[in-house]
Amino acid sequence: MKEKKEPLRAVEKISDSLSLPQDVLLSSTILTIEGTSKVFIENYKGITLYHENKIVIQAKHYQVILRGKNLRIEYFNQDDMKICGKIISIEFVS
Amino acid sequence: MAKKLVKWCLGYVKIALTGEHTNRLLTLLKNNGISLWDIVPVEHGYEAYMYKNDVFQIKPLLRKTESKMKILKKYGWFRISFRYRKRKPFIFGFLLCVCFIYYFTLFIWDIHIDGESNYTKEQLITYIKENYVDLGTRKNEINCEELEKELRKYFEEIAWINCELKGTQLIVHIRETIPAAETKNQTTPGDIVAGKDAVVSSIITRNGTPLIKKDMEVKKGDILISGTIYIYDDYNEILETNYVCADGDVYGKTEIIYDDYVSLSHYEKEETKEKKTYYSISLWGKTYTPYTPKKNYANQMETSEEIHLKLGENMYLPIFFVKNQKIEYVPKLVNYSEEEAISIMEERIQQYQDKLIEKGVVILENNVKIYIENGVCYAKGSFVVIERIGLYQEKTEQMED
User: Fold this and answer.
1) Which residues from chain A sit within 8 angstroms of residue B43, using beta carbons?
2) How many beta-carbon pairs under 8 angstroms link A with B?
3) Contact A48 B27 (CB under 8 A)
4) CA–CA distance, B299 with A67 (Å, rounded to integer)
């Protein structure tokens, strides 16, 4: 596990020293949350599960689990997606 | 709204995705750059919307994930074009109509005048049509400034004029007054001369040399304010002569003659119930009347009512529908009592006075007398008024000499 983390730190250091956004170098997933009803997700890999109460999004190194009520994917395309509904929790699972 | 319009133009469909690996299908769709929106989980899959063109790209992905897709509903322009694929002449006609309307809007199809009082609409419209802009003239050939100059030159009592093009309509706004000494737009040196015989009541000079004083009697054509300015030296000899545009307000006491009459017995047209109606259509200046009644009444009056076809407020088209009527009447001799005739005459005089006041004229005396003689009610006399008498006149070489 430690061996895997080291290259990440190096990239992080480079991005910090060059003042570059991390999502460009690390392909980090960006979550923009508007209150408890809207979530915009960028840089995601795929949709693993889609239910009214639970949506699982696959990111590069982890999964994002959204729990809530009446969850609905308003749209998705190659770059981003928008999820609406009553969001109760957001979890990150490696 | 713009997004909806784009979607409608591109065309989109509502689909139902079913199968065991629909989540994987969603991931594959994302990776292949296929957009979906309003995705709703339903039993055994999802319902969503996608662009029409993406439907063909999705098929290999459906095979890979062993999923099925069903198109539930189609939306957009392509659906309408498909529905009317057997009605090509209709579509062609519709497009032709749009092209014709666009072509018509490049021309002037109506002339509107407002603000006239002494001149009539017909008088102004006829002059414009005959000398400058006839109906059917291209809009880009019309020079509003030139038209304004032309009209101001021909109709001397127009004090202010503005022409504008709105849609397919030429609108001419005018204001009429007694000829005013307008020097704002003058560039050629000139004088202010008397427009009529008068006794000067007041004079204000803004530019030039005043040649008259208050209470002086002037004749039509006399110079009131000269545009020539002499500069004298210490020995009272002319050192320099400058020519300027004379400017000022000159008011004078004048007399306006009033003469009118009303016959006590006259004929009035009493309409009978007999009338014949027929219709015409006028296209591009040519009138077609499919049916004209041949029989004429012994006493008849003809009326016509034009309906000018237009789109919106100012987008007139070269199409008129005309309703013509031949109405029979019986001439009937009507006699006014002397009181009635006098009251009609008083009303006319009052209207004339109101018109004068509207033009900025101050009425000092009303010397009009009403009397009845040989079955005719006459109103004769004059009004003594104070009005603007100055009129701008450009200098000619002879005048300067």
Assistant:
1) none
2) 51
3) yes
4) 92
Asked if residue B375 and residue B322 are part of one domain, the reply reads no
Q: What whole-number distance in Å separates Cα of residue B385 and Cα of residue B383? A: 6
Q: For residue B255, what are the domain limits?
A: 189-264+336-401
Instruction: Look up the CATH number of domain A29-93.
Output: 2.60.40.2000
At CB < 8 Å, which residues of chain A contact B?
44-52, 58, 72-78, 81
Residues from B in contact with A at Cβ < 8 Å: 23-24, 26-27, 30-31, 33-41, 46
Q: Write down which residue in B150, B176, B202 finishes a domain.
A: B176
The DSSP line for B62-94 is HHHTTEEEEEEEEESHHHHHHHTTT-HHHHHHH
> Are both B399 and B259 inside the same structural domain?
yes
Tens digit of each residue's pLDDT (9 = 90 or more) over B60-85: 899 888 889 999 999 988 888 788 77
* Spatial separation of the C-alpha atoms in residues B96 and B82, rounded to whole Å: 20
- Positive/negative CA dihedral, A32, B31, A21, A17: positive
Cβ-defined contact of A75 to B26 (cutoff 8 Å): no
Q: Work out the angle at residue B53's Cα, subtended by the Cα atoms of residues B52 and B54, and round it to the nearest 5 degrees.
A: 90
A78 to B23: CB separation less than 8 angstroms, yes or no: no
ipTM above 0.85, yes or no: no
The domain ranges of chain A are 29-93
Inter-chain CB proximity A50 and B37 less than 8 Å: no
In a domain, B105, yes or no: no
Minimum-distance CB partner of A76 among B23, B36, B41: B36
How many other C-beta atoms lie within 10 A of the C-beta of residue A49?
A: 15
Residue whose C-alpha is closest to residue B179's, from B201, B204, B160: B160
Cβ <8 Å between A76 and B35 = yes
Inter-chain residue contact A78 with B27, CB threshold 8 Å = no
Segment among A40-44, B91-95, B265-269 with least mean pLDDT: B265-269
Contact B60, B34 (CB under 8 A): no
